[in-house]
Design goal:
By secondary structure, the chain is mainly alpha-helical. It contains six helices and four strands, in the order ααββββαααα. A two-stranded antiparallel sheet has the order 1-2. The protein has a two-stranded antiparallel ribbon with strand order 3-4. A hairpin with a 2-residue loop joins β3 and β4. The longest helix has 19 residues. The mean pLDDT is about 75. It comes from Rhododendron griersonianum.
């Protein structure tokens, strides 16, 4: 479970993980189980990890698989249009990664509750092309690097619209046009506004 890259590489490319409170204590207690494997499969009893005889019983499975950043984009960077049963939350290439991941989790939570209906495959694929064009305009050839989008407002606006929240988060005309957006502007997305 030890990364094979240096701390400086991890820090400078925004790969520094943020762990929840008591993470290591929960690992020691056995309520969080870490397994490294080349392959796995799901079964009725839980999860079968390569090299294990008995399946692992699990309420939630988090696959920290790493990723290839040049592979196909997903709808809202969470769900692939042709595989809507699979959701992937991850860093969305902004300077405020935790904030972006939190908005993604809120979006996914609403999707799983049935509050958000996916658009048709064609429309989602069109949105993916729009997002790719947006990232090209902002970051050019470096668009697949972590932290490439300094101002992910378009993405946040789309997430807000899907969740039924007002994308204009500032109070007042001048604030909306001249004040920078930050994580505190998205407080209150837990209720429809």
């Amino acid at each position: 479970m030890v990364p094979n890259h240096s701390f400086m590489e991890q820090f400078s490319s925004c790969k520094v993980p943020i762990l929840p409170d008591n993470f290591y204590r929960m690992v020691e207690e056995g309520s969080n189980v870490l397994k490294k494997s080349q392959s796995l499969s799901f079964c009725s009893e839980g999860l079968v990890v390569d090299g294990e005889v008995e399946p692992l019983r699990a309420d939630v499975v988090i696959l920290a698989t790493g990723f290839k950043s040049d592979e196909k984009l997903k709808n809202m960077q969470i769900i692939h249009p042709r595989i809507p049963q699979l959701a992937i939350i991850g860093y969305s290439k902004s300077l405020s990664n935790l904030h972006e991941s939190e908005i993604q989790c809120r979006w996914l939570s609403r999707f799983l509750r049935g509050s958000i209906q996916l658009r048709g495959i064609g429309e989602m694929e069109k949105e993916i092309v729009q997002w790719e064009n947006y990232t090209k305009r902002c970051a050019g050839k470096f668009r697949w690097r972590s932290c490439c989008i300094a101002i992910p407002l378009w993405y946040n606006d789309e997430m807000c619209r899907d969740m039924g929240c007002e994308p204009r988060r500032k109070k007042g005309f001048f604030a909306e046009w001249f004040e920078p957006y930050g994580p505190s502007d998205y407080v209150g997305l837990t209720t429809t506004q």
